[in-house]
Amino acid sequence: MHEYAAAADLTSSWRQPEWLLIAVAAAAAVCVLWDRVWRVARNVVTIAHEGGHAHWSRY
Length: 59
Prior knowledge:
By secondary structure, the chain is an all-alpha fold. Helices cover 76% and strands 0% of the residues.
């Protein structure tokens, strides 16, 4: 078994509190709907996403 498989199994069933869901959804809405924030946020999200590919490609 891959060393990260057990951790993924444990975290996939964790239920987040409702306030956290609402806070993250509100932050995402601000990032997408406010043009000035979106111009920066889209680049930050893209860099983080591609960094994830680079990280996991080692395994």
